[in-house]
Specification:
The protein is mostly beta strands. Helices cover 3% and strands 46% of the residues. It contains one helix and 37 strands.
């Protein structure tokens, strides 16, 4: 009995949730803020989902100016340093999308000479310096080595596909991810270059789980902590997180990081253990390399998030329905974890054959719902709008249902006996 009590107490400690300090710097000027580029603690560029222009702030996101481009919309933006930046956009009345560059931090812009036909919109843009960069439109990968005077195309695979992300970790090593479209299923692929895009080698190829979304986003975000350690996420439902420890030569799904029901939209790790994701439009943080995650609170509460970018361990920005900032890494204060019954929650049947139901007698809004296995890993992140769950593939054993609300955190021990 003593061992069981200690086990329950240890799990209570594991799921102590955090009250993070992500404070709103500004509300969205029009629609949601996306394409966040943080140059330093003061200078930020972004776009809005209504596609009206590029947003610029020089006071850490408190105020925004909108930079308009004639007959252009649906912007993608990428800066390589404090001065040099690039914008890709849909161009009305043109045969191809258009690109612009600035060498003075957005004071003036020069149109580049992109003439490749075959797509109306750019999906990704990534430049290494003022001369060399890549853009993609559906399955077309364009490359320039002369500052946009000319672009050439590169073919990664002959099959039908669309490019979902371009990411470089230095002036020569980079990655392109894409989704190959088949008759029955999608296929996620990652290609690597070590010669600045002269040649590309496939390093990852997997068929994702059956999707609940109409259009699968694929591998949309990638981030490296150093030259060897990197992370990537898929945007879909379910979503998953990938990790590489050998400079991107091999990629594998991180154990326990299947995010079901909703989608991952961003990832940013400070170290191998300390990282963040945006899932279901909320910020989550891990301090143990992704074994467990805690939701981060915002002020105002319940604001929807899309992207996150950390400058260092303490300072970071997040965007979505507004711009938010933390100056303590999402610093936390412990919140007590209580038995589920004390919050008016009844979880049954228990023992379970793999099905569980949650009765919310006090009608409290559930902020996060997770199923934790006997090792302390998050086995499932559950849809908080549902009350009935079926787990046909859940192994027999002891689990803990963690319920987070605005007023407290609760736990219920569950035995699965099939």
């Amino acid at each position: 009995m003593k061992k069981i009590i200690l086990l329950v107490l240890s799990f209570s400690a594991l799921i102590v949730q955090a009250r993070a300090q992500w404070a709103m710097r500004s509300a969205s000027p029009t629609a949601a803020i996306t394409q966040l580029n943080v140059l330093n603690k003061d200078t930020l560029f972004a776009t809005s989902t209504d596609g009206d222009g590029v947003l610029k702030s020089v006071d850490g996101g408190v105020h925004w100016d909108t930079l308009a481009f004639t007959n252009a919309s649906s912007f993608k933006v990428h800066f390589t340093d404090q001065h040099t930046g690039f914008v890709a956009a849909y161009a009305a009345f043109a045969t191809a999308p258009t690109c612009y560059k600035t060498l003075d931090c957005g004071q003036t812009w020069q149109q580049m000479n992109y003439t490749i036909s075959g797509g109306d919109y750019f999906s990704t843009i990534h430049f290494l310096n003022k001369d060399t960069g890549f853009v993609s439109s559906m399955g077309i990968l364009g490359r320039t080595i002369n500052g946009g005077d000319t672009f050439t195309t590169q073919e990664l695979i002959p099959e039908s596909h669309y490019i979902t992300n371009i990411h470089f970790i230095n002036q020569s090593t980079g990655f392109v991810s894409l989704v190959q479209q088949g008759n029955v299923a999608y296929r996620d692929m990652i290609f690597k270059t070590i010669d600045c895009g002269n040649t590309w080698t496939p390093v990852y190829s997997e068929i994702p789980e059956t999707q609940q979304v109409f259009v699968y986003g694929g591998i949309t975000q990638m981030q490296f902590v150093n030259s060897q350690l990197g992370f990537a996420i898929t945007t879909g439902a379910p979503s998953k997180m990938l990790k590489t420890s050998d400079g991107g030569n091999t990629w594998a799904q991180m154990p326990g990081t299947m995010f079901a029901g909703f989608s991952l939209t961003d990832v940013h790790f400070i170290s191998e253990q300390n990282g963040y994701v945006v899932y279901n439009q909320r910020i989550y943080k891990t301090l143990n390399g992704g074994q467990t995650w805690s939701v981060q609170a915002t002020s105002p509460a319940d604001m929807l998030m899309m992207e996150i970018e950390m400058l260092d361990e303490q300072t970071g920005f997040a965007s979505g329905h507004g711009l938010f900032k933390t100056t303590n890494g999402g610093g936390t204060t412990a919140v007590n974890t209580l038995p589920a019954a004390q919050g008016g929650f009844k979880v049954y049947p228990n023992p379970s054959l793999g099905d569980i139901r949650i009765q919310n007698e006090k009608n409290i809004k559930i902020e996060r719902l997770t199923l934790i296995d006997a090792t302390g890993r998050v086995s499932r992140v559950l849809n908080t709008e549902r009350t009935t769950f079926t787990f046909p593939d859940l192994a027999n054993g002891t689990y803990f249902l963690a319920i987070q609300t605005a007023t407290g955190n609760y736990i219920e021990k569950i035995q699965v006996l099939k």
